[in-house]
Amino acid sequence: MEPRWTAAEIPDQSGRVALITGANSGLGLATARALARAGATVLLACRDVAKGEQARASMTGAQVIALDLADLASVHECAATIRQQHERLDLLILNAGVMAPPRRLTKDGFESQIGTNHLGHFALTGLLLDQLLAAPAARVVTVSSGAHYIGKIDFEDLHGERGYRRWRAYGQSKLANLMFCFELQRRATAAGTELRSVAAHPGYSATNLQFAGPALLHERAVMALSNRLVAQSAEMGALPTLFAATVPDLPGGTFIGPDGFMEQRGYPHVVSAASKAYDEAAWGRLWEVSEELTGVHYDFGVKAAV
Hints:
Blueprint: E1 17-21, H1 26-37, E2 41-46, H2 49-56, E3 62-66, H3 72-85, E4 91-94, H4 112-127, H5 129-133, E5 139-143, H6 166-190, E6 196-200, H7 217-229, H8 234-237, H9 239-246, E7 255-258, E8 268-270, H10 280-294
Parallel strand pairs: 1-2, 1-4, 2-3, 4-5, 5-6, 6-7
Antiparallel strand pairs: 7-8
Helix pairs in contact: 3-4, 4-6, 4-10, 6-10
């Protein structure tokens, strides 16, 4: 049996700057605390700044920055603040998200799940690309979910205007996360950069995410019971992200998840995504649509052969 990787094995992160979205609770907070303990300067990008400040008090070397991924103006403001304060960014962890809410729109008119989970993060990463490229071997970690298996990128109805099923929309956003990760790596490699793009999923972890979307009482009751009987802790759920973020020489395009039954719990190891996540034509199409919707275009400084 291979040795089980834990947060105690995170290499020294002193001198590194790490930005984590949705870092005020759950998986994001557990990730932030572990990186701060390892010596990183941690930037907590949070929609609720007050909760972010409460989280910051539990660690050293942390800073709170306002970020609402459902508002592109806020994404631009967050990126501008980071660019002003930090010449480089070593680690960007795209962790924040919403899960299965009733249909609603972001401030820019996007369906909330594709808008928050994918488009907001797409824009943020593009706006911080110069800071990432300024760091030696910077890494972008995109947090996806096993729910990507039920997802399909509906390019003809990306925002669920013709028919909205909230769990299908969630799966679409998580599949988009993986396609973004893989296409970012493809473009970074083509441009000759050292940037590495990797993905992770936490399995089934007990966090507030399960109660942020489902409105039906029976769903809340089932999730509350599952959190007690099945789910692992946020600290365990954060291990795949931490592994993806810090293990040296991890190749770009790697996907990390738990090693237990059906990848629901356990210790981090390399996993495979659903076959549809490796559709390179869909990667490129999603990238082009994302640039058009957000108005953010990536410039690697070298003409990429894509």
